[in-house]
Amino acid sequence: MNIHEYQAKELLAKFGVPVPAGYAAMSVEEAVEAMGKLPGPLYVVKAQIHAGGRGKGKFKELPPEAKGGVRLAKTEQEVREAAHEMLGNTLVTVQTGDAGKQVQRLYVTDGVDIEKEFYLALLVDRATGRVAFVASTEGGMDIEEVAHSTPEKIHTIDVDPATGFMPHHGRAVAAALELDGDLAKQAQKVASTLYAAFLGTDAAQIEINPLAITGDKQLMVLDAKVGFDSNAMFRHKDLAELRDLTEEDPAEIEASKYDLAYIKLDGDIGCMVNGAGLAMATMDIIKLNGMFPANFLDVGGGANTEKVTAAFKIILSDPAVKGILVNIFGGIMKCDVIAEGIIAAAKEVNLSVPLVVRLEGTNVQQGKDILANSGLPIVPANDLGDAAQKIVAEVQKAA
């Protein structure tokens, strides 16, 4: 689960992370009101969407030369104009895709005199299974290019969960940022508080870009992106309330109600699979056979008829879907239960696109018999390669 920048900063401030003063605004008048609470004389008006690259982004409804989603302002009129241009318009960035995202919230913060920008993030390093700091002296809007062209400028510091954050971790972060003296001490404290926030909120990612040295030699978090482990949200009811459903795909919201892992893609073959690895392999083999997957959908290991029906409805809610491939390996999940769910779902949604089903594992023959005797035009497949070839052929035949 992701949250907006203003929510992230409010949360991090509770752990002692230094952030500039700022206020959220849902309207032009609220933006002006927020400005009045800040000392000035410089203000920053920032579009709030769940995507990076806002400063370099462009609004669909504005001329190409118009400024992006982060604006500097010195007067009430400039704040008012920036808020008016952003709210309700669609911001397109490198992370939103061509569709962009509509701006419904703003964040008005105090302007800061920036002397130097850094990059600092915390995430779970899958290679080591530990929480890791990722630090670079090259912070700012071009951090992706830095990682691509000069990876030696990106430093990673792992934290052993047996010891937790120790003073030497703070010193390592300060060294990676090439800071000394009082700034090094500040970096150590920032790293310590960020680690406490990461663990305390069950975060999956905390990204600070930039972490800046201000004109008065203070380290300040000027932008923050925070995402949480959705599996831990039952422990954080207060954080779950920060979820902004308008930033999420409606189909993905519906899938979450049934504990389905669903991500919409740009293809034309709907996929329903159990297991993330099998789902990835299924998408790959569809592409190898000349078509593209319309989604990633993992029904998990304990799917029942209700889940399968919900999965079918979600897949078919995408008008681009021209066929469905079901690929199930039954371990805990029994193939006969899946077969019954597929039939019930196909009847309930009045399935009108080709459907290919590959079953393997527990009670596989019973499952195949149920499908064969259903009276529905379900095409059986013997293995994954056979399934991919058949769904592509069925879709092309129906075209």
Short description:
Its EC number is 6.2.1.5. The chain is an alpha+beta fold and 399 residues long.
Secondary-structure map with pairings?
Elements: H1 5-14, E1 22-25, H2 28-36, E2 43-47, E3 58-59, E4 70-73, H3 76-86, E5 90-92, E6 101-102, E7 106-110, E8 114-125, E9 130-136, H4 143-149, E10 154-159, H5 167-176, H6 181-200, E11 203-214, E12 219-221, E13 224-228, H7 237-240, H8 250-257, E14 261-264, E15 269-273, H9 276-288, E16 295-298, H10 305-316, E17 323-330, H11 335-348, E18 355-361, H12 364-372, E19 378-381, H13 384-398
Q: What's the average pLDDT? A: 92
Q: Oligomer, anyone?
A: single chain
CATH superfamily caption of the largest domain: Succinyl-CoA synthetase domains
Helix content: 25-40%
> What is the CATH fold-level name of the largest domain?
Rossmann fold
- Count the DSSP helices: 13
GO biological process, one term: succinyl-CoA metabolic process
GO molecular function, one term: ATP binding
Keywords: ATP-binding, Ligase, Magnesium, Metal-binding, Nucleotide-binding, Tricarboxylic acid cycle
Binding site for substrate: 274, 331-333
